[in-house]
Design a protein that fits this description.
Shape: globular
CATH class of the largest domain: Alpha Beta
Helix content: 25-40%
Distance between the termini: 27 Å
Order of helices and strands: EHEEHHEHHHEHEHEHEHEHEHHEEEEE
Oligomer: single chain
CATH topology of the largest domain: Peroxisomal Thiolase, Chain A, domain 1
Largest sheet: 11 strands, mixed
Strand content: 15-25%
Radius of gyration: 20 Å
Number of domains: 2
CATH superfamily of the largest domain: Thiolase/Chalcone synthase
Strand order of the largest sheet: 5-4-6-7-1-8-15-14-9-10-12
Amino acid sequence: MTTVVITGFGAFTPLGVDAPSTWQAMLEGVSGAHTLPYEWARDLPTNFAAETVGDPAERIDRVAARRMDRSTQHAVIAALEAWADAGLTLGDDNGIDRDRLGVCCASGIGGMQSLLGQWDVQKEKGFRRVSPFTIPMLMANAPAANVGLKLGARAAIHTPVSACASSNEAISFGLDMLRLGRADIAVVGGTEAVIHPLPLAAFGQMQALSRRNDAPEKASRPWDVDRDGFVLGEGSAMMVIETLEHAQARGAKIYGTLAGAGISADSHDLVQPDPEGRGQASAMVKALKEADLQAADIRHINAHGTSTPQGDRAEAGSIALALGDTSGVLVNSTKSMTGHLLGGAGAVETFATVMALNTRTIPGTINIENLEPGLPVQIATSTTALPEGDLAGLNNSFGFGGHNVVIAVTNANQSRSLRPAE
């Protein structure tokens, strides 16, 4: 089977303006959640969220930014960073065959801020004031399309939409693209930007959001007995993936291998996970099989871990169901710091999983004051070292609709032919 490696990362998140600052904040246990400084947020049951560090529009050409939804801006920033991190220069051919370059960038909701913003314009000022760029801004494939245009990708551009599992599905599609011979190199990941009165109100009405308004930085607390819901986040992470042959031919640095993916469906409920965790466990088992790994090979799992009462408990059970003996596995949830990026979550967390294996350091799950008793998994509550040697890990993403997507990765030492990232 074709070996696929990861050669570049980019991120724009509630923790940092790029991948290095995001990773450093994870290691330091920083929370990106804060009280929203907007008048519209004051009367909402949840008046806080995890916004990206800074305004993405300030990091893109002013004219171009006005034609992009905030979710697209996030994705373009992250993709261009990943491209540069992979040793590639924008505007140069870099020896890359654009007919063999693909993009797969997901969004769970799409350009919702543009849609609702332009609806407000029409109601208040009339249809003649509606932007002619509204449709290209609101469509869910806009982030992928804009990234593809920036990079000149011509192999294919994909946009999976599967709620909170979307960006892991995008990564799995990119893996398939390379293994099926449809491309040699691809830029994959996900994005989201829906910190807006309507989603905050709607998620609140579902009783899905934490209401810890007095301490937003402590609100996301996966597996804590006092958890009361997730924290809405925004941002993007993107990565460059290549066939090993393609990466070696151009002397690229390598962070690790994208070893496999597992996809399943619960067929249980539109929003609640199967309490027995069968679908989630099935996705993990499938990822192991595709990656040619055994359960005993897994040393780390970056869990979906949203900080909801039902979800965290179900996932702990599904991990035990999939792996059996979990004594050698350290589980964490970086959502305790970033909040829940919805369609961008899996990409940020796959980045964190790869970096954990590459640096042999797992960021701790913050805000756990009273760990739920009787969990069948070991939760990392502080930054923890991983052992020497070959390492493998999983990243779990589960979405409304019963979508389950698990990504399996290994560190760069997994093959002697790989050169680790510096």
